Request: fold
Amino acid sequence: MAEVILMPRLSDTMTEGVIAAWHKRVGDTVQKGDLLAEIETDKATMELESYQDGVLLHIGTPDGGKLQVNDLLAIFGKPGEDITELVKIHGSGALAPIPTAAPVAPVETAAPATAPIPTETTTSMDISSMDEVVLMPRLSDTMTEGVIASWQKNVGDIVKKGEVLADIETDKATMELESYKDGVLLYQGAQAGEKILVNDLLCIIGKEGLDVAAIVAAVKAGTGAKTPSEEAPAAPSVVAPSAPAVTAAPAVEQAVVNSGRIFASPLAKRIAAEKGIDLKYVKGSGDNGRITKIDIDQYVPSTILAAAAPAAKSAAPVISNAVAGQVSFTDVPVSQMRKVIAKRLSESLFTAPHFYLTMQIDMDAAIAARTKINEVASVKVSFNDLVVKATAMALKKHPKINSSWMGDFIRYNDHINIGVAVAVDEGLLVPVVRFADGKSLSQIGAEVKDFAQRAKDKKLQPSDWEGSTFTISNLGMFGIDQFTAIINPPDACILAVGGISQEPVVKNGQVVPGNIMKLTLSCDHRVVDGATGAAFLQTLKQLLEEPVRMLV
Reply:
C-alpha cells in the first residue's frame, strides 16, 4: 500500500520548507537511507533521507517549490499503484493541524544594547526574531518536555552548522539535535540530566560579546522559565562513562570497499571521526553507495568483534548495593518515556470503561502449520506473526473492533494498522504494522523483527509508532499464561496474548494433551459491546485453530 510522507518540522521555528533539490525523481526506486531531497528551512539547508523502501510515485512540489510543515511531500508505493485518492486527500490540505506550542508572551520595546540590566525590573526584548536563541524543539508528536541526556558542545566552543549540539531524551527516544547555524555556544539552558519544556530556552549561539544576560532575562520574563542558577540545586547527576572509541583494524586485515571520492552524509562523517572509523572500509547502503549514520552504527570491524561483546555486557549499570540488615534504596529519575506511559495509560484506564473477554485457543494446528511454513519461508515466522495476521483478518470481518472513541463520534477505520507492543529498557513502544491484512506472514515477520531491533537501538521514528487502529501485547515468550492489558488510545481494543502451554483437553471423547493459548481482549465499552467482542474472538479462534483459513 502507498505511504504518504509529509513535510517534517526540521527546526524549532520552521513553518515551511523550500525544496532546494530533489535527488530522486518520480518512478525511481528508493531504499531506506537514500538521499531523497535537500530542504531549505528558515535556518539551514538540510538533507532528508528516506526512512523506507519503495518507488517514488508522487512529489508534492518540484525543485524550488515551497511546502508548509505537514503538507504532502511525497508518496511511496508500488509501481502502477493508484494514488489518486491520497493526492486528493492530502493535496487539498485536509490534514490535522500540527501541534504548536504556546506563543511567547508579547514584549514591549527592546531596551538599548548598552543599557544595563535593572536589578528590580526585567529588560524587555523581542527574542522571537533573534537567530541566536535556540528553543527546545518538539521532537515527537506527544513531547511536552525534553531531558538533556548530554551536551556535545560546551559553553565557549565554536559550533558549526550541522554539528551535534546535544542528545535530547524525549518520551519515545533519545535524539541528536544538530546546530542550524555557525557561532559560539554562549549559554546552555540546562545541564545534563535536567529537563526543559518545549519552546523554552535551550541555548544561545552567537558572537562573542552578545548580551546573554539580557536575553536570558527576557526569556524568563516572557515564559516564566527559570534559569539553572535560580532553581534549587539539583542532585548531582551520574554520568555514564562514554563508550571507548572503536579503532579501525589495520588495512591488511580488512577489504577496502571505497576508493577515490567517498560519499557520506555529514552526520556519518562526524560519527566515523569520533569512533576512529576509516570510511574506506565502510559499505554504504544509500544512493550511489552513500554512507549514512545507519551504516556507521552497524559497522564493526571483524578484528574487534569478539572483544566488543564482553565490554558491552559489563557496561550494564548496577542499580542496587543492598547491605544485609540495613534499610537502603535507590531513587531513579522518571524517564520521559515512562512519564508519558503513566499519563496516557492512566487516562485510558480511568476514562475508558474497560471490560475483558478471555478465550482459549487450541494451537495444535497452528504449531503444525508454522513448522511447514518455516520450511519454505524466507523469514522465520513466529507464533506472534500468526496472531497478527489472524487478528488483521478478523478485524476485516468485525469493523466495530477496529474503531476509536472520538468524543462526539465513533470512527470506524477501513484500514487495519496493528500496533505491536515492544518492551525496551525504558518502558514500552508500539510500532505499527500498517495495512496488516494485505501482508503475508513473511512480510509481517520481517517488519516486526525490524521494529523490535530498531526499538531497542532507539532508532524508531515518530512515523513508526503513529496511526494504530488496534494493538497486540504478547507476553507469552516471558512465560505468562494469561493477563489483561490497558487499551492504547485512541484504539478501542487491545489483545493480550499469553504463552502456549500443554494442558489436558477432550478430543473425540478422549482426554489428551493439547497446546493451549489464552487470549484476553480488553474493550472500551463506549464503543464495543460484549457480544461484538465475543464475535471477534470467535472469528480469531477459527483462524488460529484452522490456519488454512488465512490462505482463503
In short: Residues 92-123, 223-252, 302-318 have pLDDT under 50 and may be disordered. The longest strand covers residues 493-507. The radius of gyration is 27 Å.
